[in-house]
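Sample entry (312 residues):
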Amino acid sequence: MSEAFRIIHGPCPLCGSAHAELLLDGLRDVENRVPGEYDVSRCLDCRLIYLSTRPDEASLHACYDENYHVRFNRALHPVLRGLFNTRYALRLRRLLRHSRGRVPSSVLEIGCGDGNLLAYLEGALPPSVELVGIELDARNIRLQPGSRIQLHEADFDRLDLGRRFDAVVMYHVLEHVVRPVDTLCRIRELLNPGGFLLFQVPTWDTAWRKVFPRHWNGLQIPRHQFFLDPESLRQLCERSGLRIESVAGLLDPGDFAVSACNWITDRLNLRTLPRKAWFYIPLVILGTGLVAATHLATGRSGEMEVLVRPAD
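Predicted structure, serialized as C-alpha cells:
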C-alpha cells in the first residue's frame, strides 16, 4: 500500500453534517484485506448510515486491486456462469418492462465491471439498440470482434458523453461513490424524455447483516461509502431531483454466501480470499434456498432494485 494512502474522519455524504452516532467501529476489510480500521456511523440530521472513518478520495483507487471480485473470470465455473446468466436474463426482463412496452433505443451501464451484462444485452437486444458502458478499469473486459458496445474507460463524474439515453442502469455502483447527489444529478441530465434510471444497492435492513454484523457482504469495507434503507433512499433521490417509481427487494444468494465466507476465512485466519475459497460455491448453492426461505419468512432481501425518473 502506498504511503499516500490516507484514512480520514469524514462527514455525511448526503447532507454534509458532522453530527453522527457511532454504530460500528474497528471494522476491517475481511474480503480484500485493504489495511486500516474503519467506522460506520448514522447521521443525526438526515439519518444516512455511512462510512465515517474512510480512505480519502485520492486513496480510494488503492482499494480496488486485482483481487476485487468483479475482476474474477466468472465464466470459468459453470455454476457461477449459470447463476449470472439467469441474473442477466431477469435484469433484461425488468428493463424491458420498465421501458413501457418498447425496446429502448439506447442503454448506458455505469460501472459495467467485467462487461458481461452488456455482452448479454448485445446478444438479446436488436442490433439497432446502442449499448454504452463506463468502467474505471476496463483492462479485464474482453469484447467480441465487431461488438457494437461502446466502452469508455473513465471516471463517470469526469466524462462528457455529449448525448442522452433512454435507459441508464447501475448495478452495485452507487454505494461506492463519494458524492451520490452529484452523481445522480448528472445521470438525471443524461436521460431522454421518458427515460429512466434502474439501479441496485445493498439493503441495510437485510437479515444477514444482523447474523454477520461485522462480516456482512454489503459492508464491503472500505469500498462502500454509505448504506441505504428505504427512508435514506427516498431522501437521496429527492435531493437529486429524481422520483422513485418502484422499489423491489431482490433475492441475492451472495448476501448469505459472501457474508458466511467472510466470517469463516476471518475466524480461521485463512490466507485465501473469501470468494476464492473452496466452500464459496457450495455456500452459493446452499444460500439460494436459504435466502429464498428467509425472504419469505421475514420479507427482507439482500438488495433493492430502484426505478427512478426525473421529478420534473
